[in-house]
Amino acid sequence: MIALSLAEIATVVGGQTYDIPDPAVQVTGPVVRDSREVEPGSLFVAFVGERVDGHDYAADVVAAGAVAVLASRPVGVPAVVVDDVQAALGALARHVVERLGATLVALTGSVGKTSSKDLLAQVLQRKAPTVFTPGSFNNEIGLPLTALSATDETRFLILEMGARGIGHIRYLTGLTPPKIGLVLNVGTAHIGEFGGREQIAVAKGELVESLPADGAAILNADDPLVRAMASRTKARVLLFGESDDADVRAENVRLTENGQPAFTLHTPSGCSDVTLRLYGEHHVSNALAAAAVAHELGMSVDEIALALSEAGTLSRWRMEVTERPDGVTIVNDAYNANPESMRAALRALVAMGKGRRTWAVLGHMAELGDEGLAEHDAVGRLAVRLNVSKLVAVGGREASWLQLGAYNEGSWGEESVHVSDAQAAIDLLRNELRPGDVVLVKASRSVGLEKVATALLDDAAVSSEGQVSGR
């Protein structure tokens, strides 16, 4: 964080200081909520959770080097005490970003936020010091913590914004007002909470409504609900996509033999070829989104194309591709799932697995409400239509819907199976995998299917060590 004294922080957040010998002492380290992340000079934010109360760690974090605690009650060590810790954290973030000389870029969408953010960060880092949301740290706590990690040297601050209801993004943009707003798509993620795609569009569009007249709204030309947001902003509009009228677009889109997308990138300043290191054609849209923002910020088309072609995966469990020594390829995409990302992952699996056996190890997609049965059934059917070799549906009722959709689409029988949990899936795969197989693992985060990918990779490591020791 930019250096601030405890007296300044107390004034900004409307708090009172307790047990602080010298209010002029500055916070020079990171602002953190996890006691394990404390460094010398930190400010520790004490939240009260369902199982853990951060106030209980106050003495420990100060002993570890924290300058003070942002708390809702005195804790016996240096503290700034406020009525509402979350509101205070947001106020501090707003104060800091107003002092920064950085351009704030915010992005939202139903699918691809984290992948697009990671690509954009790697592109903009080529131009100037860039701070960006780690992982999916995109809510009312994670976003201000990210903003507070910026320093005086930061020139671009990229903030991913998530929403579970109307007004959430409006709140986040109030904390960190963006100059550039990027909307990727309007899908069915959280549709059970919102009540329909139109309501999701209302929520996502709050981002472009927040932009200033001298800002830029970067909108997906291929998504009608996103394109329509052009009427909701004072900012200049830049379209990206594969549509002919997109300002930043892709032509000659294709997949390499490894399933990695390649295309010609067109911007208003010229064109250049891109071959991504990521897997699956769905990343073309993510790359175009990043390219559009980079173009808006003055990068040349050749600079953008090179940066995109060299960018990798920064966030774990998102299409992480690992090949075992025996030739089995594990695709760990287990961080989360919704209908759009499931379809994209299945298509990527098939592209990667040409001439090889493909396995789709899938679990339920959460928060679909009344659409749950139809959406799970449709994913199971798509696996058949794409000629995935075998579907392993993992879990309870929703997994049975996946398996039933596959069975009804193709009378698969032995080609689809429903198992109770991750361990059952691991046992099945250990018995049936053959060298050269490609295994996709994907479900909503609550299912914990990353355990399947981890176990299969650990098996390979143990096997490899055994072969070495036996020589």
Automatic annotation (TrEMBL):
Q: What does this protein do?
A: Involved in cell wall formation. Catalyzes the final step in the synthesis of UDP-N-acetylmuramoyl-pentapeptide, the precursor of murein.
Native organism is Streptomyces venezuelae
Q: What GO MF annotations does this protein's record show?
A: ATP binding; UDP-N-acetylmuramoyl-tripeptide-D-alanyl-D-alanine ligase activity; UDP-N-acetylmuramoylalanyl-D-glutamyl-2,6-diaminopimelate-D-alanyl-D-alanine ligase activity
Annotated membrane-spanning segments are: none
Task: Give all residue intervals belonging to the Mur ligase N-terminal catalytic domain.
Answer: 34-86
- Family the entry assigns: Belongs to the MurCDEF family. MurF subfamily.
Q: What is this protein called?
A: UDP-N-acetylmuramoyl-tripeptide--D-alanyl-D-alanine ligase
- Catalytic activity entry: D-alanyl-D-alanine + UDP-N-acetyl-alpha-D-muramoyl-L-alanyl-gamma-D-glutamyl-meso-2,6-diaminopimelate + ATP = UDP-N-acetyl-alpha-D-muramoyl-L-alanyl-gamma-D-glutamyl-meso-2,6-diaminopimeloyl-D-alanyl-D-alanine + ADP + phosphate + H(+)
Q: Where does ATP bind?
A: G109, S110, V111, G112, K113, T114, S115
> Which EC number(s) does the record attach to this protein?
6.3.2.10
Keywords assigned by UniProt, alphabetized: ATP-binding, Cell cycle, Cell division, Cell shape, Cell wall biogenesis/degradation, Cytoplasm, Ligase, Nucleotide-binding, Peptidoglycan synthesis
Task: Output the HAMAP family linked to this UniProt entry.
Answer: MurF
- List, alphabetically, the GO terms of the cellular component aspect: cytoplasm
UniProt domain Mur ligase C-terminal: residue ranges:
318-445
Q: Which InterPro entries match?
A: Mur-like_cat_sf (IPR036565), Mur_ligase_C (IPR004101), Mur_ligase_C_dom_sf (IPR036615), Mur_ligase_cen (IPR013221), Mur_ligase_N (IPR000713), MurCDEF_CellWall_CoF430Synth (IPR051046), MurE/MurF_N (IPR035911), UDP-N-AcMur_synth (IPR005863)
Q: Which Pfam families match?
A: Mur_ligase, Mur_ligase_C, Mur_ligase_M
Q: What is its main location?
A: cytoplasm
Q: What is the lineage of its organism?
A: Bacteria, Bacillati, Actinomycetota, Actinomycetes, Kitasatosporales
Looking at the record's lineage, which domain of life comes first? Bacteria
Biochemical pathway? Cell wall biogenesis; peptidoglycan biosynthesis
